[in-house]
Amino acid sequence: MRHPAPAQCPATEESHARPGPLAGLKVLDLSRVLAAPWATQILGDLGAEVLKVEQPGGGDDTRRWGPPFLEDGSERPDAAYYLCANRNKQSLAIDFARPEGAALVRRLAEQADVLVENFRTGGLEKYGLDKATLCAANPRLVYCSITGFGHTGPYAARGGYDFLIQGMSGLMSITGRPDGVEGAGPMKVGLPVSDLFTGLYATISILAALRERDRSGQGQHIDCALLDSQLALLVNQGMNYLVGGVVPRRLGNDHPNVVPYRDFAAADDYIIVACGNDGQFRALCRMLGLHEMAEDPRFATNSGRAQERRAVELALARAIAPWKAADLLAAMAEAGVPGGPINTIDQVLADPQVAARGLLQSMRRADGTPLTVIGYPGRFSRTPASYRQAPPWLGQDTEAVLAETLGLATEEIARLAAAGVVQCAAPRAARQDAELPA
């Protein structure tokens, strides 16, 4: 089955010119992979100036995490994984394992409002880039550390990865098909949600610390851990245990509290039914011709339906099975019953609602290579997110930042590059086929 191409919105001159809500904020990004780069990309989308410091020669690990790669004619193209979390940043390739490189990063930190890093606990001390050293030199600095387990506790020295955290946090124990059915067993979520949740919590924490700095004039250290963040996102399942004392289990696509709230098989596809209140359930029953169920006092409340889950879901499954999925969803929408399809990625990116919201943005890299990105989801009435710079290639901005921000002479930058302390990317020829859609 062919699907229409995603509708794209070009990054307009207006969005480039209009300052975002974080315009003027300077962020030094010493991170790689996903959790911390996700946080700094959000800050960049909202107008902050983000300087991403990477290791010369290789850069962020995710530049190689492909295929797929963005084909741009270079010998080492960047992977899609890197491109998802590194727009609105400038790339500086500085080897801060060497004293001269570390000194450059310390100078950049003296001018920064925010520093974000995701090295193991204590990993930056030997370079003089730890929170104590940098915050002493710049007391207004908000220094955010992102690790697997935080800077305290018996696991502080361990490395943490998303898959590991999904398992340790209990998330995988409630994700997957229930015991006793085909395919039963724990399952990770299809996205690195523990990384992404931590990036979001880090962003919120940074903005809160900046707001407090407005009053006190002092920065502070923020310690964000993947395990802590994922534990906080256990939400109702965690409270179900704390209040009810029963350990939550895998339910497949069933909801632990709400009935009906799951997928059902129509004649030609699966659809989702999500009745969040009693009125919606009654409307669904009437629409399906289940008038007796709509009036049955056993099913009048969610509590009653939860006790009779099996009977409710079997009756609904029988009534839904003859319907074509599109016809059923249209009838549900008219009846005010929440529901929807189970889209593939290509289908949702081509959805008219996605186009209407402008969620796909067209950008182009400095050499003209076109790139479509999924944009920032929040809508600001006066100071919207912007798409000023596509994800940079390694060292793209080293020379310009060292010259303009630190005042280094061209000869000094050339000396540092020759010594391997920094890497300055060679300019690439502009592509001739890089026109953005109008």
TrEMBL record:
According to the record, the residues making up region (Disordered) are 1-20
Q: Which UniProt keywords apply?
A: Transferase
Q: Which domain of life is it from?
A: Bacteria
Molecular function terms, GO-annotated: CoA-transferase activity
Q: Which InterPro entries match?
A: CoA-transferase_III_domain (IPR050483), CoA-Trfase_fam_III (IPR003673), CoA-Trfase_III_dom3_sf (IPR044855), CoA-Trfase_III_dom_1_sf (IPR023606)
- Give yes or no: UniProt keyword Signal: no
Could you tell me which PANTHER family the record lists for this protein?
SUCCINATE--HYDROXYMETHYLGLUTARATE COA-TRANSFERASE (PTHR48207:SF3)
- Name of the featured protein: CoA transferase
